[in-house]
Structure formats: C-alpha cells, structure tokens
Amino acid sequence: MKAHALQAAPGQAKAPLRLRLKTYFSQRRRRQSLLALLFLLPWIIGFLGLFLYPVGMSLYYSFTNYDILQPPQWIGLLNYAYMVHDPVFWQSLYNTLYMTVLGVPLSLGVGLGLALMVNAKVAGVSMYRAILYLPTIVPTVAVTIIWMWIFNPDYGLLNNLLSLAHLPTPGWLSDPGWSKPALLVMVLWSTIGQTVIVYLAGLQDVSTELLEASMLDGAGPWVRFRAVVMPALGPVTFYSAVTGVVAFLQLFTQAFVATTGGGAGGAGDLGAPVHSTLLYSLYLYQNAFQFLHMGYASAMAWVLFALIMLLTIVLFGLGRGLVYYEGRDGA
Amino acid sequence: MTAPVGAPTAHVPSPTRRPRSRETALMQAGLIVIAALFLLPIAWMVAGTLKTNGEIFVVPPVWLPSPPQWLNYPHALRYIPFFTYLRNTVEVSVLSVVGTLISCPPAGYAFARLKWPGRDLFFMVSLATVMLPFQVQMIPLYSVFRSVGWIGTLLPLIVPAFFGNGLYVFLLRQFFLTIPKELSEAAAIDGASEFRTFFQVMLPLVKPALITVSIFTFMANWTDFLAPLVFLNRESTFTLSLGLQFYQSQHFTAWSYLMVASLVFTIPALIVFLLLQRYFVQGFTLSGLKG
Predict the structure, then answer these.
(1) Helix (H) or strand (E) segment spanning residue B150
(2) How many CB atoms lie within 10 A of CB A221?
C-alpha cells in the first residue's frame, strides 16, 4: 500500500530508500514470474502431454481390456489378478531380478576396483580410462551383435579359446543354464565404463589431508581405504546404485536383439531359450505389441514402476544409514 | 595425531611420492590385461569386417585376415539400405539435440535463478519425471501418436525433445546455480532486462553444460532401440538400430557385413567421444552427486 502511495506521487521528493527498494523488488518478482512462465512453457506442455496424460491413461488402461483397435473395456483388477497366476510373468520377473541382483553389486564392485586402478599414478592412465569407457559409446545393438558372434557355440571366439585350452564349451546364449550369465557379461562390458567415470569423479573428493593424517597414524592401505576413501565415496555409490537398479530393471535391448536378431518379426523366439532371457520388459513389450494385450502390459508397467520406487526407497533407507555427507553431520 | 604438530615434515612419507616401483609394475600389468579384455570384442569386430565367409568359421580364430577383404565395406553398405537408415538416425539425433537446446536451458534457468511461486515444488515434480520408466508412457503415447498418424514417421522420436527433459533440465539448473549472482545483478544494474541477461550473459557462461547436454541427447538417440522399435513401423523410416536386423535371416547371418555396419554405426559416436571427452565427465560431476 505504501508502494502504491509512492507511485501516486511521482513528482514528490524521494521516498525512503527502503520503500523504493520494496517497489523495485515486487515489480521484479512479477516480471520474474512472467518470465519463468514463458521459459517453462515448453516444459509445462511436455509435462502435461508427454508425462501426466500418458501416466494417467496408462493407469486407466491397466484396469481395462484394451487391444488398441477397440476402445478399452473396464475390467477392474482383473489384469492384476491374472498376473498373479501367470507363470510367464513370474519367470520374466525372476529373470530381471536375477540380472539386477547380480548386475548392480557386480557393477559397483568391479567399477570401484577399476576406478581405483585408473586413479593411480601410472603411465598412460588417461588412455586406460578412455579404453574402459569405449564400450559404453558402442550402440547397444552393435554391442549385442558383436557378443552374439563371440558367444556363438559353434564358431564363436569364446568357445574357440576354451576348446584350445581343453575347457568345457557351453552353449552360452543358446543354453538356458548359461544364457543369463552370458547376457550379464555383455551388459556389464558395455555399461561399466559409466560406473568407473562416476567413481573417478568421486575419488577426486577424497581428502588428501585425511589420507596423509591417517598415514601418520600408521594406518595401512586397507584401513585407509575403509576409513577415509569409502566414506567419501558414499554419495557416489548411492547414486550409482540407484541409477543401476533403474537401468537393470528396464533392461531390454540386449535380450531382445540376442533372441530375435533385432526385428519385431525376427528370426528367433523372444526370450529364448525356454524363456530364460525373457526379461520383464520383453514380456511387457510382447504383451503390448505382439499379443495386443495393452491393458495387461499397462498393468505390468505399473508393477515395474512400483518395483523401481520400492527398491529406490530401500536404497534411500540404506543410504541414510551408510552415506556420510561431508559437513552435514560432521565428525 | 601421534606426530607432534610442527614436527619437521620432511621425513613424512607422502602417499604420492613414496617409491613403490613393484606395486606400480603390478598395477601396470593388471591394467594392460584389463585393457586387453575391454578392447578384445572391439578388435574382434574390426577384424571381422575384413574376413571372407570362410575365415569367419575357422578354428583357431583368424585375427589378421589375409588378404583383407576391403570390398566387404562397399558390399555391406549396399546389402541393405544402409544410407537411408543412417540419414534417419542422423535426423533423429540432430533434431533432438536442437529441441533439447531450445527447451531445456530456459527451463533450467527458471528453476535456478528466477523467483516464482511454487518453484521448488515444480522442481521436485520435474525430477520425479526422470524416475518414470518409459514402459509406462509407451502404450498411451503409441495410442496418441497412432491417432494423429505419426506412427511410421520420425516425429514421435523428435518432437518430444522440444518439450523438455527432466534430467537435462536438472543438469542445466545445477550449472546455472554455480554462476555467481553478482554477474546477473551487474547486468541488471547496467539496464539489461531479465530476458537479455539470460541470452547474453548467462547462456554463454553455461556453454560447457550445453555441450554436455547435447552430447547426452545425441548419444541417447543415436543408440536408442526401444522407442524406434515401438514407433517406427515403416522400413523406410528405420534407424540404424532397427536396420541392422536385415543382415540376418532365419538360416544365414552375414557376419562380416554385420561387423562393417556395426563399425560404421559406431564411428560417429566415437568421433563425438574423442573430440568432446571432457564434457562426458562433466555431466556426472555436475549432477550434484557429490552430496
């Protein structure tokens, strides 16, 4: 109100500085809000059209029988009830959890080990870093094709080398007992460079003063690692664990290409042999676009989302206990 | 501390300078073995591009094909409509980068430096969108794109980039936050509008972040498989990720041609990586994952 009085008498001698500043800032705030609206307009449209609407519709479809050709029919919780009794659903969930439960810890452990190695002061270290990262830039389809050839039971590189060493030569991707480990090797090879880079960034944060102080205290390498390096890497580990879980639960391309040759009407059976690589996302895709069970696939998508949220919350819980943020709850 | 403060530090073994030649040698050897393991599949792909059909099935494996089949290259690229798929892939990747650069920096700026009611709430919402798996949006988006006749065109892969992306908005916001407030205030005192401050002062300062976000967008689109698989159903609009399937049929796989195509498919990504290496790392250090 005082600001209003100020504007009503523009010719008057200068109003107190505090008042003028107040007017200036309230005008500025209005201008900023308008500008923010303008700047966010694409994001707002995208949020409504590409996020909120699809999410709402997906939830709705999950309670319907929907084949995209006919309008969806409401069937309540039937899709979810059917899921409970669908052995293939459980098989695909098992396959994906297998990959996640083995893949994420392996990725973190091996990633940290490699990061420590390429953090050491040895000759050519930047070249080694680039080599570890190189597989991550190879397109996923190309990665899968290369490994399909390497894993080929008859003339693949791996079995060639194994037979030269008189070791057993399993069928890898075509053997239900070996297909998941083979898939895991392929995925880890092409993604671990990411984890290494993240850990390397984290290692730059390890305090050299603390390291030197602990050496003065006579701490050996293992104690130094446990007491100084590991705590500093907490946030980075947490970040890698969350992104790793999200990525592994959605794993799709490698298994899809490896079993179909890369096309929707491809040469092989999705998830072959005997559903051993039928990952959750593959079964979801199959229901949606091969069987046209869009309602069931939507319900599966929501179960996947719930699973991702659940595991993230579990990780947050674990993280709160284990992660030490410097300067937050100081020593 | 057991060492008395102020004691001469010259005797203190510094962790970096202590001579540990045996450990270093071991480390060096370990790194060579690991590097070889990581490079092996790539070397195998490159060797494969130059093999005859006979050499592909030979035991023990051939690493240096003789004579190298250079003609595999032109043959492979004509075996399928490779250049059509390449053009589609370039189109999707480049236009997505353009869309991201138009839609994300202003949004990141609005979240970082402008004051408006509800900002922090909306920022959390924006972050939450990152957690949603594509599988949830996929079916409704397919249904919408189908009803507007976009299925079988490249539009479903390009248009969304023009409407923001939670992850990139987040990265850019983090970067805008690192720029001292004094700079934009100085510009305001000099009479620049908020609008001009953004375009002429702030945007040039966040160039590294713009490059990082461009790289991420380019790489994600270059290698994407699931979205093209869902949205493209006409062969003439296929990207390379989808097109490579045509080197395989039920009974025959043209391995050497597949390796040529895989290599050529990788090279643009490799060039981006080699030229802009440091920006790859920046994205991770920027994301605020250091707590």
Answers:
(1) none
(2) 11
Q: Check if the beta carbon of residue A160 is closer than 8 Å to that of residue A75.
A: no
Shortest distance between the Cα of B37 and any Cα of chain A, in A, equals: 9
B169 DSSP 8-state letter = H
Chain segment B15-39, per-residue pLDDT in tens: 554 556 788 888 899 999 999 999 9
pTM: 0.87
At A6, list the tokens.
């100020």
How many whole angstroms separate alpha carbon A278 and alpha carbon A259? Answer: 9
Ramachandran category for residue A68: left, alpha or beta (phi over 0 → left; psi -120 to 50 → alpha) = left
Q: Do B133 and A114 touch (CB under 8 A)?
A: no
CA distance A47 to B113: 21
For the CA atoms of chain A, what is the radius of gyration? 28
**A147 and A156 Cβ atoms separated by less than 8 Å:** no
State the ipTM, two decimals: 0.86
- Residue A109's CB is within 10 A of a number of other CB atoms, namely 11
- Give the tens place of pLDDT for each residue, A232-274: 888 889 889 999 999 999 999 999 999 886 655 444 578 888 8
User: Inter-chain contact B44–A246, Cβ cutoff 8 Å?
Assistant: no
